[in-house]
Structures are given as structure tokens and as C-alpha cells.
Design goal:
about 5% strand, about 70% helix, two-stranded antiparallel ribbon, MarR family winged helix-turn-helix transcriptional regulator, globular, mainly alpha, 7 helices
Length: about 150
């Protein structure tokens, strides 16, 4: 038996919850891919979204929030800065620590991307009652918060 065979033998079949989360992730990623004509990659998009959701952040906190190395975050920040989607400002006089925030162009890019999210919301509203929508919202936040703790 090879190492790969041994690993496959130890894995149990995925649960319905695992399948449902995986399928939802695949569908959402496919939607995001289809609505990104600017060619922003996943990590760059995630940086923009994190800044939209949480506001200005320093690069260390941003990399931690995204679960990526500081080097990976810095690379994404350089590209986004070159595209004028973000701006960085020194936090103190020594200028070693910076805060990163969205520029008006970055906000405009995300507003354009928001149309796809809003279409997703409309699709969900078509199949969920108002009560189900509230429960789904609460459950999504709980699951996202729980998965977020795995990054830290």
C-alpha cells in the first residue's frame, strides 16, 4: 500500500455539511471569477474586501486577518498600490509602520464587484423565506467566525 493509498483509506467520506460548504464555496468562487474583468487575483481581492469590511489596517494585521504571510500580503499591497486601489500612510514619525486603506478608485472597483454579491443576495431571497434569511445570515456569521479562528 502506498502512502497515498493509506491516506485515502484513513479518510472518511465527507459529511453532508462538508459537501454543502464545499459546494457553496465552489459556486461563490465561480461567481467571483466571472465578475472580475480587471483581473484582480484572489489575494488582491481579499485584501480589498478586508479593507472594505474592517476599514484601514496595518499590513501585519491585514496579513494575519487573511491567514497569509507578511511577504504575501506585501506583494498584494504593492500591486494594489500600483493600480491605485489602495493607499498607505505612515502611522508615526519613524515611517516604518503604515496603515493601508482603500482609495476612491478601490471603493469604485468594489462597488462594481458588489453587483455580483447583490445578485447572489437576490437569488438567496428568491428561495428563502424572511425567517430563513435571518437564520441563514446568523448561521453564516457563526460559521465564518468559527473558521476565522482556525487562521489564528
Amino acid at each position: 500500500m502506498t502512502d497515498t493509498d493509506a491516506v485515502h483509506a484513513q479518510l472518511s467520506p465527507p459529511s453532508e455539511l462538508e459537501d454543502a460548504l464545499s459546494h457553496l464555496q465552489c459556486v461563490l468562487v465561480a461567481r467571483r471569477t466571472a465578475t472580475n474583468p480587471e483581473g484582480i487575483n484572489w489575494q488582491q481581492y481579499d485584501v480589498l474586501e478586508m479593507l472594505r469590511i474592517r476599514g484601514a489596517m496595518n499590513p501585519s494585521r491585514l496579513s494575519e486577518s487573511l491567514g497569509v504571510s507578511r511577504q504575501t500580503a506585501s506583494k498584494a499591497l504593492r500591486v494594489l498600490k500600483d493600480l491605485e486601489l489602495i493607499q498607505q500612510a505612515a502611522l508615526s514619525e519613524d515611517k516604518r509602520e503604515h496603515t493601508t486603506s482603500l482609495t476612491p478608485k478601490g471603493h469604485a472597483f468594489l462597488a462594481s464587484a458588489a453587483r455580483s454579491r447583490q445578485e447572489n443576495v437576490r437569488a438567496a431571497m428568491e428561495v428563502l423565506s424572511p425567517g430563513e434569511q435571518a437564520m441563514f445570515t446568523e448561521m453564516c456569521q457563526k460559521v465564518a467566525d468559527s473558521i476565522d479562528t482556525l487562521l489564528h
